[in-house]
TrEMBL record:
Protein name, UniProt field: Galactosylgalactosylxylosylprotein 3-beta-glucuronosyltransferase
Family: Belongs to the glycosyltransferase 43 family.
Highest classification ranks of the organism: Eukaryota, Metazoa, Ecdysozoa, Nematoda, Chromadorea
Residues that coordinate or bind Mn(2+): D177
Pfam families: Glyco_transf_43 (PF03360)
Site (Interaction with galactose moiety of substrate glycoprotein): E209
Cell location: Golgi apparatus membrane; Membrane
Xref: PANTHER family: GALACTOSYLGALACTOSYLXYLOSYLPROTEIN 3-BETA-GLUCURONOSYLTRANSFERASE, GALACTOSYLGALACTOSYLXYLOSYLPROTEIN 3-BETA-GLUCURONOSYLTRANSFERASE BETA-1,3-GLUCURONYLTRANSFERASE
Species this chain originates from: Onchocerca volvulus
Length: 324
């Protein structure tokens, strides 16, 4: 019996018949996996973006409430700032103005220590959008400190212009080079019913100078500078309700006083005691400092050429008062 030799179809390139189909299915499957992965990534990214957007909305709303915190007080804050021409003045005033721009119901009284007003300062005030009054009052000779005349002029202007506000306004003296937390205005100053006091950082050789409290009453001052003085606080560390200032029209700095410091001069003329002071910022722990007695360092200038930029060297305008 003879065996027949069986013949099989030839193999092309050593591949099995189903290899082509298998490779095609693999490619399709890989594409499907990539599509699924892409869809998952897109979904996760969209979800993350949604969470971020919602978080940003919440954060923005919280920031608005944080800055202009609604409280029981609807008082207007009147800020009096004495200022004078110097190289760093525009930098200082820019920083202060950017803070005040965040505060609602605020009136800014700026008193220029000169016979003329500064055009760059007026332009800066215009840009803020704040209600402001810009006065030019040259400091009186014989006064111990430059800012006394400016504060007194601003205070007299407030008494004449805003007497109708009475107890619905609070006056605060803000130097142009200090550093202010926005919470100072809404959480402290706006709630002052008579006289409010609080801590000030970097003042009178202290890291912080603050009222000494017992049973929620001011009994003295935490400071190394003349700690036994009756009024041991800085100008940045208190605010006065306008009603009290109206009841004592002579309170101010029209003349020299024996204490040689502006704070006791004003307090003594207001005829108040420590019992009339309300401390702020003493209940929380750790306690926070919301105003710092900072000062821009002296700047040594070799060239006064401004190259056309608004750097305030000698540009001034001759109006006696500008009101916006």
């Amino acid at each position: 019996m003879r065996l027949r030799k069986l013949k099989f179809p030839l193999k092309l390139n050593n591949q099995r018949p189903f290899d082509g189909i298998f490779c095609t299915l693999q490619a399709i499957l890989a594409i499907i996996v990539i599509i699924i992965q892409t869809c998952i990534i897109i979904y996760l990214v969209d979800e993350r973006n949604y969470e971020i957007n919602e978080s940003m909305k919440t954060s923005n709303n919280s920031s608005v409430q944080y800055i202009n915190n609604k409280n029981n007080s609807n008082r207007t804050i009147i800020v009096i700032t004495p200022t004078y021409l110097r190289f760093a003045r525009l930098a200082d005033m820019t920083r202060l103005s950017q803070t005040l721009m965040h505060i609602n119901q605020l009136i800014w009284i700026v008193v220029e220590d000169a016979e003329q007003l500064s055009l760059p300062v007026k332009q800066l005030l215009d840009r803020t959008g704040l209600q402001y009054y810009y006065l030019a009052v040259k400091h009186r000779t014989g006064m111990p400190v430059r800012g006394w005349t400016g504060r007194d002029a601003g205070l007299n202007f407030v008494r004449k212009k805003f007497a109708s506000m009475g107890s619905k306004a609070v006056v605060y003296f803000a130097d142009d080079d200090n550093t202010y937390d926005i919470r100072l205005f809404n959480q402290y100053i706006r709630n002052v019913e008579k006289i409010g006091v609080w801590a000030v950082g970097l003042v009178a050789f202290n890291v912080v100078e603050a009222p000494k409290i017992r049973n929620k009453k001011v009994i003295g001052w935490q400071t190394i500078y003349a700690p036994r003085r009756k009024w041991g606080f800085d100008m940045a560390g208190f605010a006065v309700n306008l009603e009290l200032l109206l009841r004592h029209p002579q309170a101010g700095w029209r003349r020299r006083c024996r204490e040689h410091s502006p704070e006791p001069c004003l307090m003594n003329l207001l005829n108040v005691s420590l019992n009339d002071l309300t401390p702020f910022g003493v209940d929380s722990w750790p306690r926070e400092i919301l105003v710092w007695h900072t000062k821009t360092s002296n700047i040594h200038i070799r060239s006064r050429n401004t190259y056309g930029y608004n750097a305030e060297v000698s540009l001034q305008i001759s109006y006696l008062i500008l009101i916006h």
